[in-house]
Amino acid sequence: MTADQYLYQILSREAVDSGPHSPARGCQALLLPIIQQWAGNQLAGVAPSGSFAKGTANASGTDIDLFISLKSDTTNTLREIYDGLFEWMRNHQFSPRRQNVSIGVKVGGFDVDLVPGKRQDPLSGDHSLFRNRTGTWTKTNVATHIGLVSGSGRLDEIRILKLWRNQKRLDFPSFYLELTVIEALRTVYYGSLSANVWMVFEYLRDSFMTARVQDPANTNNILSDELTQEAKMTIKRTAIQALSAQHWEEIVT
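Structure for Polymerase nucleotidyl transferase domain-containing protein, as requested:
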């Protein structure tokens, strides 16, 4: 079995149903009435927004992200929106967890991250999100994120790197990882999956520590600041270990 065959076999095993009967859609259908009751007439929409929407999900260890879009004329502050959703989910017996911009709940064995945001205007997809860790807010555009990643042509490489991250228990936020893979392969032709993944490991070894990664929907949001230098060094060291491995089975399974 070649290296490419081995990696594609893993991707096949980890394939995720993204159709109308997928886990993401099932969780969305179950949660939608509860979210509608909470948001009332201020709800603009609820939709998958993370790896399921981008095409970078793996069957193992993937959260389901649901983006809750509130209308631009919502009068509540971003903190009130975030805290209000948390209390609403707790009152409905979901044992919610406060995260950074999301609220985590369990639905039918799946980890679901609820991301509440308020539209900045009625026409654009720009939203304001509350940052729980800092008590501040940030602007982002989920549609921009989805379009950039899903159209990158690097979904297989991203999925392999996500599996590697999870199996090595690395702290590496998903969107930061996705943009890092895209940047590492920016000048590389499409071709051998294993060769491309190898180049990503080389990038993590050589350039990752000093690379400045911005949110493409908000250049003031520096994604690379989400990790400490110590956390970045752990990623670099683990990439160096991958580059010294004799077999792919030592890198990802």
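The chain has two domains: 23-147, 152-250.
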